[in-house]
Amino acid sequence: MQTPKPHFIDFEYFEIKIADTWLSRLRGLLGSEPLHHHQALWLRPCHSVHTFGMPYPIAVHFLDKNMRIIKSLPCLKPNRVAICLKAFSVLEMRSVSAIELILQIKAIEGVMQEYSQAAG
Question: What InterPro entries does UniProt report for this protein, alphabetically (predicted)?
Fold first, then answer.
């Protein structure tokens, strides 16, 4: 018997909501409050995102199949599109400064590696 996939991951540092259905990826962060520094939306599979209709900018991190960050955008403004054809999934987070981006990337890499090992 397969265990159901989690739709919310709660790590020590991050709360990650998973969007892994067509509808949940389509909705994304539309209509939501801005994310807190410890929250993220993980879209999978996904290699492009948009911010049409969003009132606030977001940080976007494209991940490969090994859950390594291959492209990061610290501040994707509203009404924009971002694409990374080599990406397997995308983490959307609160928009950050350049210095915060470095810390965010290091934290994400640690969390995603932990998730990868726990999943299997």
Answer: DUF192, Saro_0823-like_sf
DSSP string, 72-92: EEEEE-TT-EEE-TT-SEEEE
C-alpha dihedral (83, 85, 86, 92), degrees to nearest 10: 30
Across residues 50-74, what is the average pLDDT? 92
Q: What pairs with residue 49 in β-bridges? A: 82
Sheet with 8-10: list strands edge to edge.
Answer: 8-10, 15-19, 39-43, 89-94, 58-63, 69-76
Mean pLDDT, residues 52-69 = 92
| Annotated domain spans of the chain | 14-96
Comparing 23 with 11, which gets the higher pLDDT? 23
pLDDT at 8 over 60: no
User: Per CATH, which fold does 14-96 belong to?
Assistant: Jelly Rolls (2.60.120)
Tokens standing for residue 84: 């990374």
pTM: 0.79
